[in-house]
């Protein structure tokens, strides 16, 4: 329901009541009907004086029976309003008196009362049985000082018509109406001109008013000596104004939450309850033709004057019109709507009609204070609105070139702060590390990384666990269906992209081979257990590929030697020994395979190894390096044994097109490729006896990533708001997509960026970045952020220590999100000044809440006002 809806529209006698009512209802809200005594005490001193009218019944039969028949044939309430003496105020001469007042003046009067009285009455204004309701009046001019007022059943709901009969019942006591709105004068003037020009008579003018607090108890008090407090409490109790909910139109809780927070921002309340329409900029090409500001102002007024939940249909229509992403009835982000709304309101109310072009000058060694004031002055020359006055601040941004140390300093405005939420929740991930030169046995490590950390976090933790050398790098891959399907080379990618059932393999590469071409070996072997009769075993793929730097000479011999070198850690000693492989940072060595070879040639090879080298090394948690004899494992023994080993493998060049085509590589084949690809894929077929000579468990069974670490009860993830601020302000490198062009180096550089707060706004909006989005995943952080409700001290974060207003803030509103990315619900927690307490705004339901209960992991957007 609007605060007031009024119109002064001519309507001919032939115009239907429905059409006339529609014309009146489409006009902007402007006039309210309130108790005269109350208005006389609370109105502004400079407000215009009122015009007094005495109401009497229009002519009707005096005989009672005829009056009943007349009322049946003419079911309208008709009054004769006779103009009296024009005075600025005073008594009403007894009886009941009402005042027609402008809605904006009424709003200001209510706001003043709310801020000044601090009433202790717990009976809520919203709960008053009187209620507020619209009433359509038909006014026509009989003579210069006499008006006819008609209230018709066809214009008004039955209940409203019955209430009007009680208000204007002139049989029991006199009724007076004071017009402080100027509407009756306007009607008289229009009728005078019309009669003079066109000589049309019996012209009716529709006037829609909003009637407030006309309960029986109130009207009875008006006739007596009613004191100030009782009059005010009967009309608009301070403790309940603004405690009105918004109806959910279908997944619009995100919108309701943001609106309630803004609608309880004191400076915006005062502004939109006043004459804000005069400040609308309809020519701003960046604005929304003033329609967004008008829709928001109308909605805010309803929230502060209505007594039942407000359906924000009109406001939602305007939002969808100018921001199609919010159309329909899907769930959206309350902070995204808030950002659009603040920006749209600013442009609709921007008082700068012609924005000057101001080119930012380089600091050139000037003091920061001078440069910051220059930037701020340029900003204000193009932006002047209540949003700027309330919500805009300024921060200092410093970029430093990592090569030449050139710095660039700018001072940029902000409307809100989007703070990262550092999370202490950990995820345990298992990764198997392989060598690329055959010097180490494979080892699986369990490493802890932030639950929503990056691949950079994973590589860092894994590097520490495997004691990666300064001259080495780790290439992390995702393995699926026996092949490397993805190289995890983007440090900023989230580990949430990796599911619990995925399998990871990391390869130690010398730094000198970081950009070198690579050869990737996939391999398959005969599974002797795949056939019941063991006569026709099937080929099976080994799960873990092996990887190495591509040899300079790409031929059959070099590829064979490279592969055999990679297999050396898996070689069994004497066929009956065991290979000890590290299974984690705290694991003991485990037997992977016991196999006894029945092939004499193989036994001769292994016997020679036992004579030339010590026992297989114990793979410890600190290092999994293999100890070999004088010759490499794959190169030991006699030439015949080596030749026998070579015959155990066949090599095939896989098609780069991924069509499954393979070309056999002959060992003596030279110049296999004219140009080296970045990654050469080779498939190795193990012949029947080969698998008996190697421990293949680590090739066959690559472990999955572990499940999320369970957080014991009482140790939930939490962080202080100051920790979020420090994470926001800390120096960090720009992302690869945000490279900065260094004017000294003459090229784009991944500069270091440092932010500092410079100028704080009157209202500080803090957005906690709980949601993260990628092409494949969406996550929400449930971290509990411990934020102060009073005395948020930001003085230590302000870079400018001179001439700053107070840097202490008090919390007054929170936009909350409950649930996850798949589905959730928004509410608002708001401190109500008049009610002296916190209230929960859950769509159309508004209930008190304790201050202790406002701090939850659902807190999403925080609203602070300067103390």
TrEMBL record:
The protein's name: Ubiquitin carboxyl-terminal hydrolase
One Pfam family here: UCH
Functional summary from the UniProt entry: Recognizes and hydrolyzes the peptide bond at the C-terminal Gly of ubiquitin. Involved in the processing of poly-ubiquitin precursors as well as that of ubiquitinated proteins.
Gene Ontology MF annotations: cysteine-type deubiquitinase activity
Domain of life: Eukaryota
Domain USP per the UniProt entry, residue ranges: 244-867
The protein's Enzyme Commission number: 3.4.19.12
Family: Belongs to the peptidase C19 family.
Keyword Protease on entry: yes
CDD domains with a match to the protein in the record: Peptidase_C19R
Region of interest (Disordered), residue spans: 592-641
Classification via SUPFAM superfamilies: Cysteine proteinases
Biological process according to GO: protein deubiquitination; proteolysis
Reactions performed catalytically: Thiol-dependent hydrolysis of ester, thioester, amide, peptide and isopeptide bonds formed by the C-terminal Gly of ubiquitin (a 76-residue protein attached to proteins as an intracellular targeting signal)
Alphabetized UniProt keyword annotations: Hydrolase, Protease, Thiol protease, Ubl conjugation pathway
Listed InterPro entries: Papain-like_cys_pep_sf, Peptidase_C19_UCH, Ub_carboxyl-term_hydrolase, Ubiquitin_UBP8/5, USP, USP_CS
Feature: compositional bias, Polar residues: 592-620
């Amino acid at each position: 329901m609007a605060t007031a809806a009024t119109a002064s529209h001519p309507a001919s006698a032939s115009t239907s009541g429905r059409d006339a009512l529609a014309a009146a209802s489409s006009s902007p809200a402007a006039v309210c009907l309130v108790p005269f005594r109350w208005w006389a005490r609370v109105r502004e001193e400079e407000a215009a004086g009122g015009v007094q009218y005495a109401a009497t019944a229009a002519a009707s039969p005096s005989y009672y029976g005829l009056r009943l028949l007349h009322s049946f044939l003419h079911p309208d309430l008709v009054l004769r309003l006779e103009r009296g003496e024009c005075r600025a105020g005073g008594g009403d001469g007894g009886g009941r008196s009402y005042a027609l007042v402008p809605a904006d003046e009424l709003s200001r009067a209510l706001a003043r009362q709310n801020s000044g009285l601090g009433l202790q009455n717990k009976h809520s204004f919203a709960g008053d049985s009187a209620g507020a309701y619209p009433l359509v009046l038909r006014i026509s001019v009989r003579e210069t000082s006499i008006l006819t007022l008609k209230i018709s059943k066809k214009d008004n709901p039955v209940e409203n018509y019955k209430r009007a009969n009680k208000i204007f019942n002139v049989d029991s006591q006199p009724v007076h109406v004071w017009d402080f709105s100027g509407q009756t004068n306007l009607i008289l003037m229009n009728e005078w001109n019309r009669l003079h020009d066109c000589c049309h008579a019996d012209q009716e003018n529709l006037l829609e008013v909003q009637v407030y607090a006309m309960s029986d108890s109130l009207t009875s008090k008006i006739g007596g000596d009613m004191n100030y407090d009782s009059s005010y409490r009967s009309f608009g109790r301070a403790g309940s104004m603004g405690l009105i909910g918004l109806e959910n139109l279908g997944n619009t809780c995100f919108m309701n939450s943001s609106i309630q927070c803004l609608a309880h921002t004191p400076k915006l309340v005062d502004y939109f309850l006043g004459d804000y329409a005069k400040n609308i900029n309809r020519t701003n090409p960046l604005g929304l033709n003033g329609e967004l500001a008008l829709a928001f102002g109308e909605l805010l007024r309803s929230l502060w004057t209505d007594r039942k939940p407000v359906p924000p249909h009109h406001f939602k229509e305007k939002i969808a019109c100018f921001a199609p992403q919010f159309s329909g009835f899907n769930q959206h982000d309350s902070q995204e709507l808030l950002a659009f709304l603040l920006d749209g309101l600013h442009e609709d109310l921007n008082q700068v009609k012609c924005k000057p072009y101001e080119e930012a000058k380089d600091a050139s060694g000037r003091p920061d204070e001078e440069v910051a004031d220059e930037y701020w002055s340029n900003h204000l020359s193009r932006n002047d609105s209540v949003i700027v006055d309330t919500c805009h601040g300024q921060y200092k941004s410093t970029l430093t070139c990592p090569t030449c140390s050139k710095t660039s300093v700018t001072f940029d405005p902000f409307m809100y702060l989007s703070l990262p939420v550092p999370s202490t929740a950990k995820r345990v991930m298992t990764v198997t590390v392989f060598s690329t030169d055959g010097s180490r046995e494979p080892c699986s490590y369990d490493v802890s990384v932030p639950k929503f950390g990056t691949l950079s976090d994973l590589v860092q933790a894994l590097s520490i666990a495997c004691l990666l050398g300064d001259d080495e790098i780790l290439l992390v891959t995702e393995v699926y269906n026996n092949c490397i399907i993805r190289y995890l080379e983007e440090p900023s990618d989230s580990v949430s992209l990796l599911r619990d059932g995925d399998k990871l393999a990391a390869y130690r590469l010398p730094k000198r081979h970081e950009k070198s071409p690579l050869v990737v070996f996939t391999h398959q072997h005969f599974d002797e257990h795949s056939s019941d009769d063991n006569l026709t075993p099937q080929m099976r793929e080994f799960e873990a590929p092996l990887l190495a730097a591509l040899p300079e000479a790409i031929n059959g011999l070099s590829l064979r030697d490279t592969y055999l070198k990679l297999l050396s850690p898996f070689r069994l000693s004497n066929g009956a020994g065991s290979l000890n492989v590290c299974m984690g940072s705290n694991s003991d060595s485990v037997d992977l395979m016991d196999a006894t070879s029945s092939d004499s040639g193989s036994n001769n090879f292994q016997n020679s190894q036992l004579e030339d080298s010590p026992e297989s090394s114990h793979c410890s948690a600190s290092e999994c390096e293999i100890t070999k004899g004088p010759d490499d494992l794959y190169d030991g023994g006699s030439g015949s044994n080596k030749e026998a080993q070579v015959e155990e493998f066949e090599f095939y060049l896989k098609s780069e097109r991924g069509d499954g085509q393979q070309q056999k590589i002959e060992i003596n084949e030279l110049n296999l490729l004219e140009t080296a690809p970045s990654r050469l894929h080779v498939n190795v077929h193990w012949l029947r006896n080969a698998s008996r000579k190697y421990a293949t468990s680590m090739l066959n069974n690559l472990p999955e990533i572990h499940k999320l670490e369970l957080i014991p009860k009482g140790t939930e993830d939490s962080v202080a708001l100051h920790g979020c601020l420090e994470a926001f302000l800390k120096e960090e490198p720009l992302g690869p997509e945000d490279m900065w062009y260094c004017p000294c180096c003459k090229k784009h550089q991944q500069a270091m960026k440092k932010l500092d707060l410079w100028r704080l706004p009157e209202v500080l909006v803090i957005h906690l970045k709980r949601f993260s989005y990628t092409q494949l995943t969406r996550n929400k952080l449930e971290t509990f952020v411990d934020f102060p409700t009073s005395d948020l001290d930001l003085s230590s974060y302000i870079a400018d220590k001179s001439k700053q207003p107070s840097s202490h803030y008090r919390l007054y509103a929170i936009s909350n999100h409950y649930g996850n990315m798949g589905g959730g619900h928004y509410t608002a927690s708001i401190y109500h000044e008049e009610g002296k307490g916190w209230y929960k705004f859950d769509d159309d339901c508004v209930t008190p809440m304790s201050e202790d209960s406002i701090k939850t992991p659902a807190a999403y957007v925080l609203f602070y006002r300067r103390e």
